[in-house]
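Anyone able to model this chain together with beta-D-fructofuranose?
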Amino acid sequence: MMSEKLRRVRAFEAEHLPAAAAALPWYHVTGGVGWINDPNGFSLYKGEYHLFFQYHPYDNHWGPMHWGHVKTRDFVRWERLPAALAPDEAYDQDGCFSGSALELPDGRHLLLYTGVRKERDEDGTEREFQTQCIAFGDGTEYEKYPQNPVITAADLPPEGSARDFRDPKIWREGDVYRAVAGNRMPDGSGAVLLFESDDLRAWRYLGILAASGRRRGRMWECPDFFPLDGKDVLLVSPQEMKAEGLEFLEGNVTLCLVGWFDREHSRLIREREQTIDYGLDFYAPQTVQTADGRRIMIAWMQYWNSVDCPPEDLPFFGQMTVPRELRVRDGRLLQTPVRELAAYRGEKREYCDVPLSGDLALPGVRGRCLDMTVTVRPAEGEMYQSFRLDVARDEENVVSILYRPASGTVRVDRTRSGYPGNVLNVREFAVRERDGAIRLRVLLDRYSLELFVNDGEQAASFTVYTKASADGIIFNTVGSARIDVEKYELEFGDERSV
Ligand code: FRU
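re: yes, here you go
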C-alpha cells in the first residue's frame, strides 16, 4: 500500500514537473522541481544505472527528506522516475536520509538508508535518532522492510553516537554484505564505521575504518569505500573542516584517503590525503562500479555554505556533477568526465598552435553547452606571466580561469556569474605542468562550469547562474604563449537531461 506521503509527492511531481522542464540544465541531473542534495543509491540494476537523491520537492530549500529517482544507460541522458521513498514510517518520520543501493542475487533492488526520528523528552528537549533501514524494490516501486531499522544504536561501539549515525554505503564481498556509515565520536570528531551482514537484517560492527581525529573536520558524512588501481580509497565529506593552504576549503567539504585496508583490524592505513574537487560546489560524492569495471563518481554540485540564496526565479535548486571516471595514479585520485559524453559532441572547432598575447576571441568559439579543451605552452624562448580563459561572458558577466605558471596555480573567479547574495566566489588551487604545458578541459552547462586540469589531475566544480545568452569566450595572456583549442558543442536534441 502506498503511503499518503508518497502519493502526495508523486501527485506533486505529476503536476509541476512539466512546467519546470524548460528551466533545467541541459545535461546535469536536478530534482526537476524543488530541492536536492546528496546523490543516493547510485547502482547498477538490471542493466541500468539508478540514481536517487535527497529530495524536498515542495520548495527550493532543504526540508523533510524524500528520495527522488532517475536512471540512465549512459550517464548522460537520464530518465526521471517517480519519487521512491517518503518519510512515512515511525522510524523515518523526520527524514529518509542518505544511503546506497545494490542489486541482490534474487533480482530485487535493495535500498539501505538512514531513518531519522525526533522525540521530545518530558522537559521539552528534542532528541534525534538515526538508524539504518532497508527497502526492497523492482526499480520503480520500493517497500520498506517491516522490521526496520536493521542497524541501530545497539550495534554501535560504546563510544558511538545514536544521533549522528548516517549515510550507509553498501557493497557485496563474496557471500557477505559490508557497509560503511558516518558516525560522531564523543569529542565531536567524525569516524567511518564498518559493518558486516550475511542476510541484510542482522549486522555486526567490525570497527572504525578511519576517523577525523579532530584534524580533518568534525562529523564525517557520506562515506564511500572501494578498491581502485591497487589501492583502497575512502571518500568522505567532513563537516566543519578548517581551511588549509590551497588544499582544503573551509566548511563542509570533501576528503579522499588513499591507502590500504588492514582487514585484520578493519582499518584503513592511510598513505595520502587530498581534496576531491578544488571548486566551490562539490559534496557527498558516491560511486558505482560499471558493468565494464569502471568506478564512476557523481556528487552534489553545491556548497552547503551558499544554499541560503538560491536564484529566485528557478523552479529547482541543487544539481549533480557530471559523472566522472576515477583512477588512482601515484597515490592521487584522477577524474575525467564519463567517456559516454563524447557521443554527444556536435559541431567541432579546432585551432592549433595559435600565438596569443593580450585578448583573443576565436571564430566559432563561444557557447554555454560545450566541452572545450585548451592547451597552453610558452611561446618559443619566452615565459608568459599568466593565461586567462573567460567564459559565460557578456558586458556584465564573466567567469575567469586564471593560470599563473610562476605560482603553479589556477584561480577561478565567478564573482560576476549571477549568484544572488554574498557567497564565496573565488577558489585557487595548485597544479603542475605536464611536458611544458597546461591543459584545461571545461564543461559548461546552463548553470555550471566543471574544470579538469591535465586529464583529471585536478577537478573543480562551480555553479554559475549567468543567463544563457552570456556565451562569450576570450583567451588572454600577459606575455606570449601558444594555445591549442578543441571545442565541441554538446548536443542533446529533444532528449534533454532530466
Ligand atoms: C550531507 C547530509 C547527510 C544526510 C543528508 C540529509 O549533505 O547532511 O549526512 O544524510 O545530507 O539530507
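The mean pLDDT is 96.
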